[in-house]
Write a structure and sequence with these properties.
Length: 500
């Protein structure tokens, strides 16, 4: 349960520090979309949808096929505007601060807070009432409402895996080879016996790797057990209580660091884990890795198996939870640069209600980029694979209602039914819908960021001794003003609870 307090996340939160304070542009729609043609219909319109992702040779061809659907339903064509992920921050800011027409844009996290604060997104509540019945139908009310800022909705969450729980993935072949029983593993401390056998018999194997390059060993555990309230600086350890605490002073955090340190000293964690960009997937794929602590969800095991090309066993060590942060991390908003917000909302609603449109943007064109191998299951056509397909974006989590899309042949056919059930049965934080405004403590947060850069990754990979360094970390955080930040977050949370 311990995520590296990602300095990137903190930096984004503080960039978003403009949050919810003043606005630049008006959030009123520029055109109501109802000034139709002579026969009372809608005039022609081109919808520009901006997102990030890898290049796709057939992107324009997919947009043309999407346009056939949207032309018939809302008299609009679609232009898909792709930006390289590395250039996203800069290019998206330039688009929204300039005069370029943008009708839909991917947003979330710090981007969302900043865009709302600067008046760059249209308030959507009335538009959803007018044109968004597919959106409303796709969500539980509290999930759809999680993106509200000061009572207004400025973006719609994509319908995907909102919830998650902590899991441990391990190579099945090594478990079989040494006849290891994992059925009694309930907590991370139960892993020692397994890790000891693997390390002693496979000394060249990295027993436990990181879930992502920027993460710590503790990363996914923290994300899937507590409500991190956006930035980890003040969290809710009990999802039923609106009591903000200092994560780093909790016994649970100290216990986790001690476990990770023990593993590091035993040789289970690579010596350069704090600085290396290598992940557990990289290690396992290269046949020099054994396990990873990751986020669980329906389909997670099979999807990871495809990445590493080997069979994996999994152990759940917690139940799924949902928080504002997990819901609002990926959303779609209508910028004030849109020339017709009504039409943009009509298109957005189709992304939550029209399976044909959803499958086009998720998978491409049938019989060219995929073929059906079952009622709702698809695979590459003969002679096509990931290396030569003209459209293999695989970012269904980014575009509307992923639960309407086909499943890939390697996934279970009922994946999306399972995902919907999983999301709905998740434990929801009492703070669901709360968005924190860091403006009043932005100076303290800047100092706290510097402190976490110094200590967090080392502690959360076992590289430095928590007995010596955790007290130093806590003292430095207090000197940087963490108590003031937590008090401010508690104040805002209490105010939100009174008015919700």
């Amino acid at each position: 349960m311990f995520k590296k307090i990602s300095t990137t996340v903190l930096a984004l939160t503080m960039t978003a520090s403009l949050v919810l304070a003043g606005c630049g542009k008006s959030n009123e729609p520029a055109n109501n979309g109802q000034n139709g043609t002579d026969d009372g219909g809608l005039p022609p319109y081109e919808i520009n949808m901006v997102f990030y992702g890898p290049p796709q040779k057939d992107l324009d061809e997919v947009a043309a096929e999407m346009s056939k659907i949207t032309k018939e339903k809302i008299n609009a064509t679609v232009k898909l505007v792709r930006i390289e992920p590395a250039a996203w921050a800069e290019q998206s800011i330039l688009m929204l601060t300039g005069n370029e027409q943008v009708d839909l844009i991917v947003t979330g996290g710090g981007d969302y807070s900043r865009q709302v604060a600067q008046g760059q997104l249209v308030a959507l509540d009335e538009l959803v009432q007018k044109h968004g019945q597919g959106i409303v139908k796709a969500f539980e009310p509290e999930v759809l409402g999680a993106s509200k800022v000061n009572g207004q909705t400025y973006a719609i969450p994509t319908n995907r895996d909102f919830a998650s729980h902590p899991i441990i993935l391990m190579r099945q072949d090594m478990l079989d080879k040494y006849k290891l029983d994992i059925s009694n593993i309930k907590t991370i401390d139960d892993l020692d016996a397994i890790y000891k056998v693997i390390h002693e018999n496979e000394p060249n194997v990295n027993v436990l790797g990181k879930a992502s390059a920027a993460a710590s060993i503790a990363n996914r555990l923290l994300e899937t057990r507590w409500d991190i309230l956006g930035d980890y600086i003040g969290v809710l350890p009990n999802l039923d209580e609106l009591k903000v605490v200092n994560l780093y002073e909790t016994p649970e955090y100290a216990d986790m660091l001690n476990t990770i340190r023990r593993w590091y000293q035993a040789g289970y964690i690579h010596k350069d884990a704090a600085t290396s960009k290598e992940t557990a997937v990289d290690y396992i794929k290269a046949n020099i890795g054994f396990s990873v602590i990751n986020k669980g969800k329906p389909g997670a095991v099979g999807q990871t198996e495809n990445r590493v090309d080997t069979k994996l066993a999994s152990v759940d060590i917690g139940s799924q939870i949902t928080s504002t942060t997990s819901i609002t991390s990926i959303m779609l908003g209508i910028p004030t640069n849109s020339k017709d917000p009504d039409r943009a909302m009509m298109f957005l609603d189709l992304l939550y209600s029209d399976p044909d449109l959803v499958n086009l943007i998720n998978w491409g064109i049938q019989d060219k980029h995929y073929v059906k191998v079952g009622d709702s299951s698809i695979d590459f056509p003969p002679g096509v694979d990931a290396s030569n397909s003209g459209f293999n974006l695989r970012q269904g989590w980014m575009f509307g209602n992923q639960l309407l899309s086909y499943t890939w042949a390697t996934d279970v056919p009922n994946l999306w039914q399972e995902m919907d059930k999983y999301n709905r049965e998740a434990k929801k934080s009492a703070a669901l819908g709360f968005t924190y405004n860091p403006i009043p403590v932005k100076t303290e947060l800047a100092a706290i960021t510097n402190v976490t850069r110094q200590y967090a990754m080392g502690l959360e990979t076992g590289t430095i001794d928590p007995e010596v360094n955790l007290p130093k970390f806590i003292a430095a955080l207090k000197a940087a003003g963490i108590d003031k930040v937590i008090a401010e977050k508690q104040k805002q949370l209490d105010e939100w609870a009174k008015n919700k």
